[in-house]
Amino acid sequence: MTIPQEFATQVCRALPTQIRSVVLFGSAASGDFIPGVSRYDLLVLVDQLGMDELEALAPAIRAWRQGGNPLPLLFTPAQFAASADAFAIEYLDMQHDRKLLYGTDPIPGVKVSEAQARMHLERELRGKSLALRDQYVLAAGDARHIVDLLCDSLSSFLSLFRVALRLYQPQTPSHKVDALHALAAHIPFDPQPFVSVEEIKELRRSPHRVDARALFHAYWQGVETVTDAVDRLLHPSH
Question: Which of 109, 133, 158 is the last residue of a domain?
Answer without folding.
Answer: 109
